[in-house]
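Re: coenzyme A structure - here you go.
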Amino acid sequence: MDHIKKKFVEKALPRVAEFRKLLTEHGDKVIGEITIGSVLTGMKGMVSLLTDTSKLDPEEGIRFRGYSIPELRKSLPKVNPEGEPLPEGLFYLMLTGEMPSPDDVSFLSKEWSSRSTIPDYVYKVIDALPLNTRPMVQFSTAILSMASDSKFMAAYLKGIGKQDYWDTTYEDVMDLIARLPRIASYIYRRMYHDNKQIDPDPSLDWAANLAHMMGYEKYEVHRLMRLYMFLHSDHEGGNVSAHTTHLVGSALSNPYYAYAAGMTGLAGPLHGFANQEVIRWMFNMIEEIGPACDDKEKIRKYVLKTLEDGKVIPGYGHAVLRKTDPRFTAQLEFGRKYLPDDPWLITMTCLYEVVPEVLGSISKIKNPWPNVDAGSGVLLLHYGIKEFDFYTVLFGVSRSLGVLSQLLWDRAYGMPIERPTSHPLEWFKKQAGI
Ligand SMILES: CC(C)(COP(=O)(O)OP(=O)(O)OC[C@H]1O[C@@H](n2cnc3c(N)ncnc32)[C@H](O)[C@@H]1OP(=O)(O)O)[C@@H](O)C(=O)NCCC(=O)NCCS
């Protein structure tokens, strides 16, 4: 057993005992109320999940095991003291609740590198899809195709007991995370670089290796990829990709099934697809009104026109957040430090000055501020990763760190199958006295 798995057991055992005690002794304690509105508006704010890895505060944004993004950008181990934290460290923190040492992080880089070989049939599955198949379709198909490799599934079929489910789930989680950069970069090179594939470099960390296999060798891109993989990893349990992974996993579907399902949720325009929509929308805006920051009134009009056409402004708004997303702020800071004169960064900054004011004047919109997707594409564009159709795949690779840590904890707790109750409209009308 590797030392991180041992550490996980050490942490999980007492916590699982607390979980059981809580359920046995206080399972009937009331912790909230459900209104008709709660059900009819997507269960917003309804407490319904247990998630340890991170917590989202509407005003402050995400904290991973209690630490904010600025705190972790300072304190998580890095390759270069001036650089960005290694996502391996964040995974360790989410999994164990403890800050990793540089040795823990370098162990994970090596471990993932050693587990990263993709079975040949997966490449064949991807190659069987037409070249113009959307990147997220190729990505989730590839993940699903690997489910036959699931160690959990094999152990389950052999008849392991419930108490041991977490053990092979850990192995699947590690294998799956390790393989994702290879799969993502394979799709990228296949679609945009004549299928000229680049071998992994085992001396690189997980995020840098992804950039390397996509064809980006500069330290600056590796630094950005580390930030990107860190920022998109987790956003507590209720977001669509995390909740879907959890829900599908609750049927004891193996981690490949559960994560692939999560990825099909991430592919939606209101979730991870928004990162490509932001760039498409910005490109269209520049085409229509010219260099944006020359005249903010023109931007305002363009934003209003988008709204009048019945579309959303991508990258703005959030189901939980009520302030600027600190993941956006981190990207803005990164941009101002390393690419202050980039025209897209300047456009993004102008939009930040105009969009919240416009959205803020519409009473139904609960949050007019930018979310993570408003900033990520601009940074990728700057370093030449201009194929924005692909951006959601990068989001998906990063999201694996959070949703798969959550799934492992679900297995440790022995979470049961999720099965809420539903009713027809008449039932709700009756409750309302109609
Ligand atoms: C993220 C998002 C889906 C949250 O949705 P939500 O929780 O329903 O948000 P709200 O409660 O504020 O929505 C209330 C209304 O305002 C609208 N609204 C919210 N954000 C908006 C935006 N950025 N542009 C235009 N309208 C918006 C909603 O579409 C909804 O309209 P409706 O009642 O006519 O259906 C929404 O803000 C959105 O669509 N944003 C753009 C897409 C995006 O960036 N997604 C990535 C999120 S990380």
